[in-house]
Amino acid sequence: MRRKASLVLLALAVFFAALSPLLRWYAFPRLAKIPANEYQTMVLEAKNATLLDYNAGMTAHKVPKVTIVQTLKGNVEASEKIEKTAGRDVVVWDGLSYIQGPDGKMVSRVPERYIFDAHSQEPVHATGEAVDGDPVRREGIEFKWPFMTEKRDYQYFDAQTRTTNPIHYKGTQDFRGVKVYYFEQTIPWTKVSMPKTMPVAGITPETVAKTGTTRWYTTVRRFWVEPLTGAPVYGEEIHKEELRGGSLLGGRAKVTAFAGDVKMREDYVEHTVALVKHNRTLVLLLTSYLPRGFLTLGVLLLAVSLWLEARGRRPAGPAPAPAAEPEPVTA
Predict the structure, then answer these.
(1) Distance between CA atoms of residues 121 and 226, nearest Å
(2) CB 54 within 8 A of CB 199
(3) What are phi and psi of 154, to 5 degrees?
């Protein structure tokens, strides 16, 4: 009976020991992915910013606040269509950056379609990949880092310039109780397209181009990324835009269109940190807790199996002497 029990325990020990690396190196890369129907909203603010007033002689003024609302909506129908030819799990995010001034009126709105691999976050090139209606071919990541982010530089796509540039790993920090990797990217002054949706009726990229006025942009982009999930818990940009030259500026060489330190609003910071902490626990379950637990269980089962086997093979002690037959009593 002991021998049968030891064989069963040995089989279970082998099963759990083999399951440990399989869960980490086989199951996790296949199970960890961005859902196709994900929906995110993020509100950022630039307080005490400089903003161009198109209705007041194209002059820049200090304003108490500029608000940027970013939405990312998963397009399930589009992702399923692309998956048929891509041969892998694909996510399609229809994004929108909506910028409004202190009076609540629109400054600009820039739509974007971002198509990427659900597991690795690498871009997937397909029809519809665009920024503000212009077709683009992304290289590198955008919005999210890959699962198990490494301490190294990554290529990051900049939607304003439509180019990909390195974003540099700058160190490991603690952000509100979460270990994060800090990344930073600087985009130098670059000539960029005018937004197709302008705040004043009658002003379009085409009419601005006829005046000879051009738009220039620079930013310092910063992200604090939780490495297991690859999700930024916080981000900010030191953002500047200028209009340069042309008759639109009335002889001036340049005018500031926007300048400000854009930061996540506090309530969204709190929500993001809580969400990332929850998702981090799920990732740890597949990459650490369960693999280590299964390995420990396998070792314990092996030890018990060997102990039972040793007990079963132990030589039996000497047989007890037979009891003496009682002798008859004689008178």
Answers:
(1) 15
(2) yes
(3) -125, 160
Strand order in the sheet with 154-158: 134-135, 130-131, 106-117, 90-100, 59-74, 39-53, 254-264, 231-244, 214-226, 178-192, 163-175, 154-158
Task: Report the sign of the C-alpha dihedral through residues 277, 283, 285, 288, in that order.
Answer: negative
Structure tokens at 80: 């399923």
* pTM for this entry: 0.88
Tens of pLDDT, residues 121-152: 999 999 999 999 999 999 999 999 999 999 99
Do residues 235 and 185 touch, judged by C-beta distance below 8 A?
A: no
Q: Across residues 96-118, what is the average pLDDT? A: 93
Q: pLDDT (tens digit, 9 = 90+) per residue, 267-293?
A: 999 999 999 999 999 999 989 988 999
Token pair 């309530």 is found at 267
Q: Model confidence over 75-94: pLDDT tens digits? A: 999 999 999 998 899 999 99
Q: Which residues pair with 163 in a beta bridge?
A: 158
How far is the first Cα of the chain from the last one, in angstroms, to the nearest whole number? 54
Q: CA–CA distance from 274 to each of 10, 37, 193 (Å)? A: 42, 20, 37
